[in-house]
UniProtKB/TrEMBL annotation:
The gene is modD. Residues 23-106 form the Quinolinate phosphoribosyl transferase N-terminal domain. Signal peptide: none annotated. Pfam families: QRPTase_C (PF01729), QRPTase_N (PF02749). The lineage of its organism: Bacteria, Pseudomonadati, Pseudomonadota, Alphaproteobacteria, Hyphomicrobiales. One of its GO terms (cellular component) is cytoplasm. It comes from Rhodoplanes roseus. It comes from the Bacteria. This is Putative pyrophosphorylase ModD.
Length: 282
């Protein structure tokens, strides 16, 4: 079971944004107090995500909810996600926000699972790591969704990891690669040193300088293979992370090339999965 991504005050804010003063249509029709039931189910194959948040949101709206498919569950069309009972006005209040949360998050989780499955069919121990390039304001939702899909966060933010870009190195032209790595070892000794490179030669140089991870940006699978092969001749072998343009269609090729980690942002722009909602009198 994955931990909650959205606390109650965020769920309340989502409800307040969509339904600040109740559902006017339900009120005008005079059916707000009518007993009702609602079911969310998969309309297409998906890996469901944020089902817990959807259930809690509907509970916060005032209904009783049974969660039937926790985040990370692979569903087929017609499989249930959750069921809720309560007054019709309450269920109408929570319906659309809950549905949208699950649809967007499940799109991310489903694409993530496709990348993970494709890569691990070739290299069972490979890791898929998703970047911090989430939609601003949607990081918690997105990270839980990629974890539901079987990936791990690459970087949750700039404060927790060391990743040396060319944009950093331009300010340190008076220092060698060895000196830069040594400085990082002194200042943040408990952190791994990750360096992004654009060529095989750059990767070899930074590995020789002591970097723990060489993040190969926009390398082809052949170039990843060449880097991995060349690093085998070094006494201290750095890990190779392939990054840039990796998705379900080419994950297997990068895994076969020998990368230890696939770094991707592709799931964050995945098409939402379709969730069916049945809301009717109880």
């Amino acid at each position: 079971m994955l931990p909650p991504a959205l606390p109650d005050h965020v769920l309340d804010a989502l409800l307040a944004d969509d339904v600040p003063l109740g559902d006017l249509t339900t009120h005008a029709l005079g059916i707000s107090a009518r007993p009702a039931r609602m079911r969310l189910s998969a309309r297409q194959p998906m890996v469901v995500a944020l089902a817990e948040e959807a259930a809690r949101l509907i509970e916060r709206a005032g209904a009783t909810v049974a969660l039937l498919a926790p985040s990370g569950t692979a569903l087929q069309p017609g499989d249930p996600i959750l069921e809720a009972t309560g007054p019709a006005g309450t269920l109408h209040r929570g319906w659309k926000v809950a549905q949208t949360l699950v649809e967007i998050a499940s799109g991310i989780a489903t694409t993530t699972r496709a990348i993970v499955d494709a890569a691990r069919a070739v290299a069972p121990d490979i890791a898929v790591a998703c970047t911090r390039k989430t939609v601003p304001g949607a990081k918690a939702l997105s990270i839980k969704a990629v974890m539901a899909g079987g990936a791990v966060p690459h970087r949750l933010g700039l404060s927790e990891t060391v990743l040396v870009f060319e944009e950093h190195r331009r300010f340190l032209t008076d220092l060698t690669a060895d000196a830069i790595v040594a400085r990082l070892r002194r200042t943040v000794p408990e952190k791994k040193v990750v360096v992004e490179v654009a060529t095989v030669d750059e990767g070899l140089a930074w590995a020789a300088a002591g970097a723990d991870v060489i993040q190969a940006e926009k390398f082809s699978p052949d170039a990843i293979g060449a880097l991995v092969a060349a690093l085998k001749d070094q006494s201290r072998r750095a890990m190779v992370a392939a990054a840039g343009g990796i998705g379900p269609d080419n994950a297997a090729a990068y895994a076969a090339a020998g990368a230890s980690v696939l770094v991707t942002s592709a799931p964050y722009t995945a098409k939402p999965r379709d969730v069916q909602v049945m809301l009717e009198p109880a």
